[in-house]
Prior knowledge:
The chain has helices at residues 2-27, 32-43, 55-74, 78-83, 85-109, 114-125, 130-139, 145-173, 177-209, 212-232, 238-250, 258-281, 286-290, 292-316, 321-330, 335-347, 353-385, 398-401, 412-415. By secondary structure, it is mainly α. Helix 5 (85-109) runs antiparallel to helix 14 (292-316) and helix 7 runs parallel beside helix 17 (353-385).
Amino acid sequence: MPTTLSLLLPLAGILAGARGAALLSRRLGFPAVFGELILGFLVGPALLNLLQPSELIHFLADIGVILLMFLAGLETDLHTVRSVGRAAALAALGGVILPLAGGFALGIGSGIPARNALFLGAVLTATSVSVSVQTLRDLGKLNSPQGAAILSAAIIDDLLGVIVFAIVMSLESGSPLLTTLLRMSLFLPAAWIAGNWLLPRLLQWEKRSGHREASLGIVVALVLLYAWAAEALGSVATITGAYILGTIVGRHIDESHPIHQGISALSFGFFVPVFFVNIGLQARLDGFLASPVLTLGLTGIATISKIIGSGLGARLGGMSAGQALQVGCGMVSRGEVALVIAGAGMAGGLLDSTIFSILILVTLTTTLITPPLLRLAANLSSLRSLRFPSLPVANWRDYCVDEQPPSFIPSLEETS
């Protein structure tokens, strides 16, 4: 009980502070997630040092991002995804190749060994769309073509990033790469088929029995099961499994269904705010102070390579310039995926503590700048779409030479 008692006050502070920071952020014109990230950065070790990261907070944050990605899948319109499939694939490909090359080149230029520099580039390929998902929700664009492209590209990007990560780690440890790729290729279709077979039967049982609370609990259990199976059996990130299940469930229910409403309340009322605050808590200034040039270089490459690589891919895939810019900006955030890969690299001896600290700061920076970048891109796209109403005549001279005025100009008799 003493351990539990010592954790209650920090959790209460995180939840209350996150709610207040989210409201303030909205009032200032930013997405809610921006305030939650800043809160974690302010109260964490980077600045005020009022709150330290802990295993419990990290565990709750992991649950939060899993539920958030399930909701993202739940709200993904698969018809829209299919319409932007080519753009999403090219955006993901560009968003992997450019950061990988940029990170590797910067690592080599900084005197890092080639294998370590390759892993540094692999970390930069990772995309975390959890921040983009929340930002798109705030902007009302989660189900837009660019929102669908970002989410779809992130899933493909995750797979490509895991492949790159697996290749680099197999080069280091000698583990069989073909085994990893085989597990991925078997897991994804099996998860899709199993979910589409099971879920209709669950909903039919719910309709006959009326136990909607029980079905909600079963779906939450399935989310956790899919998240576990994705990494343990399929060699992909846990959030990929949650997103896949979300897309399956979203085919059979709408937003008014108790499953959707219940998981949304559970996620945004508790777990998701903890996740975003926890990202800020993990920030450290040690890496920046140790090597500010490398920090700024990695931050610039991490940002620009995603905007150009993913944006150009989306443009080549047929999207408009404004939509492609939004896709590129939406792919900037690294978040938990980069941290997981970086942690594995540090444990495997491919990263030292200084570069790991730098990557944490780069991850936080890209996560913080993604909401304003995405919002700016959306605003620019809206401005570009504005058109002045055309006059209902073929030539301006018609106003001067026509004996009869256009119908929308009142005659003298009508005005007198």
